Amino acid sequence: MDKISLPQKFSLFSKHWSPKIVAELNGQHVKLAKFQGPFVWHSHEHEDELFYVVRGSFNMEFRDRTVALQAGDLIVVPRGTEHRPVADEEVEVMLFEPASTVNTGTAGGDRTVAQPDWI
């Protein structure tokens, strides 16, 4: 039961689109990630995802609309919803999602991180 310093944890990595686990509760992982540029279009069949913007801003694109998010904003993407985060500049994001969630969902590909590192 130690505190977690988000700035300290974010300082431990620089790779974009490579989530890191910082905590676990009730079968959920709390992950940190840095985004820059567009991610892949994907969905998650069985998992909802919560994205909380810690620093910076990004757009969450859906097939029918785009939601702009700033530091302090969060969005929940319901399971089965196709989405794509896009960040013009580097953004730091905290995610809450079931431990089984793979970052690229059903899309797969070279950005898939099947087992994120704990930091």
What report would you give on this structure?
- This protein has about 120 residues and is mainly beta.
- The chain has a single domain (about 5-100), classed as Jelly Rolls.
- It is about 5% helix and about 45% strand.
- The chain contains 1 helix and 7 strands; from the N terminus they run αβββββββ.
- The protein has one helix at about 5-10, and strands spanning about 20-25, 30-40, 50-55, 55-60, 65-70, 75, 85-100.
- Strands 1, 2, 3, 4, 5, 6 and 7 form a 7-stranded antiparallel β-sheet that branches.
- The radius of gyration is 13 Å and the shape is globular.
- The model has no long low-confidence stretch (mean pLDDT about 95).
- Determine the fraction of residues in helical runs and give it as a percent range: under 10%
Annotated CATH topology: Jelly Rolls
Taking the alpha carbons of the first and last residues, their distance comes to 15 Å
Shape descriptor: globular
CATH class: Mainly Beta
Give the low-pLDDT segments. Answer: none
Note the beta-strand portion. over 45%
Mean pLDDT: 96
Instruction: Spell the H/E element sequence.
Output: HEEEEEEE
Q: Give the number of domains.
A: 1
**E-strand count:** 7
CATH homologous group name? Jelly Rolls
The gyration radius over C-alpha positions equals 13 Å
